[in-house]
Each structure stands twice: as structure tokens, then as C-alpha cells.
UniProtKB/TrEMBL annotation:
This is C4-dicarboxylate transporter, large subunit. InterPro entries: DctM, TRAP_DctM. It comes from Nitrospina watsonii. Keywords: Cell inner membrane, Cell membrane, Membrane, Transmembrane, Transmembrane helix. The keyword Membrane applies.
């Protein structure tokens, strides 16, 4: 019966059945054959839905989509280009910083590639950067902001792993900056190879760009100051962000009409939130079954036969998570995989905040890892290039990001320094 169940689930997956339906079916059938009331699935959904921090997800998502639908990408591009365009490799720096900022607020790297790709990719070609380099940089930069607050994956990991979200926000700052710097240094080297000349710093243009984006620049600082200054919680920060973004984009810049445009943006953003919540509910029910059947403990016992130290465990974990990052979107991966690996990681003495950073770095790399990384196909569609070309274009960036992953994994202080310094 178990083999038939597994075969049926695999067949449904191959036929394109939505992930939540597959997980929900697996949970319901597993409970049925184990003689457990299937209401346990819905109890888990209620427990997750009643978590106060969960409200931050739809609020931050809506704020991110508001920014994406406004002229924020254009203002952000102008600002970063004015500030960074004069340094060696200035335009790639612009791409890295702008994409990281944007992904942090939208929580979806595909949205970043779509929103900023049309602005930055033609600009890089115009400045005579190589096509493969430009494609690789844009595709890889799409997921860079996942470690910066108020990243939705950070919030979701905190909910699932029961880790303080304020500490996760702090933990992601240094590793996220490191990943940007690694690619920035490589971009500086490549800029010299392409013979790109530095653009002289223009004070008038910089002041104009700062003035134009004056209402959007304070947003991340308001969030960080409010949370770590004890002014408001993460959920309250999300509510403040939504109000601030609505006022700025609808009434200050007037990019978004509150009656004509906002309902459509709400619909788009809540479709993403709905998908997350459905997968969250069904996956937590299935996870309860796995815990009841002591599957994590069985996995731990199996691993203990071959792995007896933290270093080896982290090597195996990274390989596993890179594969997961290729095959699943980041929200599904967090919901399904985190409950299984948390008890195993704890047994090897891995800090749960550090584990969260390792998890997200792996998944953001997996987004652009051949052959099935999601960003490869989004970029292929956005830039109208064969996906095979994207494979070649992203390989140098993939190697550099793996170097960053090694540093983040085996030097826990990169993740834990700020939480230990400022954390409660």
C-alpha cells in the first residue's frame, strides 16, 4: 500500500498537480492508514494560522508588490547609478544593490528579474558589458536580497523553526553583504577586462536622484530602527510599512491610483500569500504525521551510522539543500524541509539561527543552479534567450556564490556576531 501511495504521488507530481494538493493528499492518506483522525491536518492549519507573526507575511508581500508596480524600480536604479556609477565596475554594483533591495521587500526573486531586468539589462549592454556576463549577473542577482530584512523567507523560516525573527534579521546582514561583495569584486575585475571606463561622479545628478527617491530611502531604516529600537514588533513593522508605502506611492508620488490600481495589486500579492498559506497548512499536517512516526529520528539514526561530526553533516546538508533549491520554490522548501532537518541539525550542535542563514544561502543559490533553477527559466523568458545560454552565463557566478556559501557555513560568526551583540 505504501509503494502504491508513493507511486500515485509521484505520478500526480509528474502530471503537474499543485504541490499543496500532493502534500495534502499524502497527509490525509497517511493519517487514514495510520488510524489517526484526519482532522489533525486542519488542527495544524489552525495552529499555524493563529500565530501572530504570520500576519507579517501578507503585509510585507503587499508592500513589496506596491513598490514593484510603482516607479520605485526606476528611482532606485537612478539613485544607485548616481551613487555607485563612478566606482570601478559601477554598473554591476548598481545591479547588485538594486536587486538586493528589491528582493528583500518583494521576497520573490522572479519579481526582481522581471521588474528590474527591463531597466538594467539593456543598460549593461549599452555600456558594452558582455552579453553572457550581463545575463549571468542579472539572473544571479535576482535572489541576493533574501537574507536582508524584511525578507519573507526569513520570517517563514522563523515561524517554522520557532526561531526569533528579530535575530534572523540581524543574522542575515553580514552574510548577505558578503555575497554581494564577492560578486562586486568579480564584476570590478570583469569591467577592466571589458575596458569599461569609469563614469565621473556627478554631484548634481546625485542630488537629483536623492531628492527623487527621498521618500523611499528611509523605508528600510524605519523598519530596522523600529524593530531593534523596541518601538514595534515585526508584525507591527509590516503594518507600518504598508501604510508608509500606500501614502508614498499613492499620494506623494501618485504612481498608483488607490481605487483604479490598488485592488489589482492586492489580488496579485494575495495570490502569492494564498499559495504560501495553503502549502504551509498541508505541509505542517504532513510533518505532524512524520513526527508521530518518528521519521526525523529514523533519519538521524541512519545519518549517525555514517556521519559523526558537525563538519561532515554540514557538507551533506549543503549538497542536499542545493538540490532542494533547484527543485522547489523557496517557500515550499522551507515549509517541507525545515521541520525534518531541525532536529537533526540540533543533534549535531548547529545553532538554529546559523542554520537559517545556511538554509537560505543554499536556496538562493539553487534558484540559479542548472539545470532546473527557477530563475534560469524566468530570465530566459524575460530576456528572450535560450535557457542553455543562461546555464553558461551563470556558471562563473555560481562558483563564486558557492565560495560564499562555504564561508557562511564554516564560519558561524558571520551569522551569529550581530545576534549575539544586539540580540535578546
Amino acid at each position: 500500500m505504501t509503494l502504491l501511495l508513493v507511486a500515485a504521488i509521484l505520478l500526480l507530481a509528474l502530471l503537474g498537480t499543485p504541490l499543496y494538493a500532493i502534500i495534502g493528499l499524502a497527509a490525509l492518506l497517511s493519517f487514514h492508514f495510520a488510524g489517526i483522525d484526519s482532522a489533525a491536518v486542519f488542527i495544524e492549519l489552525y495552529r499555524v494560522a493563529s500565530a501572530p507573526t504570520l500576519l507579517a507575511i501578507p503585509l510585507f508581500t503587499f508592500a513589496g508588490f506596491m513598490l514593484a508596480e510603482s516607479r520605485t524600480p526606476q528611482r532606485l536604479t537612478r539613485l544607485t547609478q548616481a551613487l555607485l556609477g563612478g566606482v570601478p565596475g559601477g554598473l554591476p554594483w548598481v545591479v547588485l544593490v538594486a536587486c538586493a533591495f528589491f528582493t528583500a521587500f518583494t521576497g520573490a526573486s522572479g519579481v526582481t528579474i522581471i521588474a528590474l531586468g527591463g531597466l538594467l539589462y539593456p543598460l549593461m549592454l549599452k555600456e558594452m558589458y558582455g552579453k553572457n556576463f550581463s545575463l549571468g549577473l542579472m539572473t544571479s542577482s535576482g535572489s541576493l536580497g533574501l537574507l536582508f530584512p524584511p525578507s519573507l523567507p526569513l520570517i517563514l523560516y522563523g515561524l517554522i523553526a520557532k526561531v526569533n525573527i528579530d535575530q534572523l534579521f540581524l543574522a542575515g546582514l553580514i552574510p548577505g553583504t558578503l555575497m554581494i561583495l564577492i560578486l562586486a569584486v568579480y564584476s570590478m575585475v570583469m569591467s577592466k577586462r571589458f575596458g569599461i571606463r569609469r563614469t565621473p561622479f556627478d554631484m548634481q545628478e546625485t542630488l537629483g536622484a536623492v531628492k527623487e527617491a527621498a521618500w523611499e530611502i528611509p523605508l528600510p531604516f524605519i523598519i530596522l530602527w523600529g524593530i531593534y529600537g523596541g518601538v514595534f514588533t515585526v508584525t507591527e513593522a509590516a503594518a507600518v510599512t504598508v501604510i508608509y508605502v500606500i501614502v508614498v506611492e499613492s499620494f506623494v508620488y501618485r504612481d498608483i491610483h488607490p481605487i483604479r490600481d490598488m485592488p489589482d495589486i492586492m489580488k496579485k500579492s494575495m495570490v502569492l500569500v494564498g499559495a504560501i498559506l495553503i502549502i504551509l497548512g498541508t505541509a505542517m499536517g504532513f510533518t505532524s504525521y512524520l513526527v508521530d512516526e518518528q521519521v526525523p529520528m529514523q533519519l538521524l539514526a541512519f545519518m549517525r551510522e555514517y556521519i559523526d561530526d558537525q563538519l561532515t553533516f554540514l557538507i551533506v546538508l549543503n549538497l542536499f539543500l542545493l538540490i532542494v533549491g533547484c527543485m522547489m520554490d523557496i517557500f515550499s522548501a522551507i515549509i517541507v524541509v525545515v521541520p525534518l532537518i531541525v532536529p537533526i541539525a540540533q543533534s549535531f550542535g548547529v545553532d538554529m539561527v546559523h542554520l537559517g542563514v545556511i538554509f537560505l544561502v543554499n536556496l538562493e543559490i539553487g534558484y540559479s543552479t542548472p539545470p532546473v533553477g527557477l530563475n534560469l527559466f524566468i530570465a530566459s523568458s524575460r530576456f528572450e534567450e535560450p535557457v542553455v545560454r543562461l546555464y553558461r552565463a551563470t556558471l562563473p557566478f555560481l562558483g563564486l556564490r558557492l565560495m560564499g556559501l562555504i564561508a557562511v557555513t564554516y564560519f558561524p560568526a558571520l551569522s551569529l556576531f550581530l545576534p549575539n551583540l544586539f540580540g535578546s
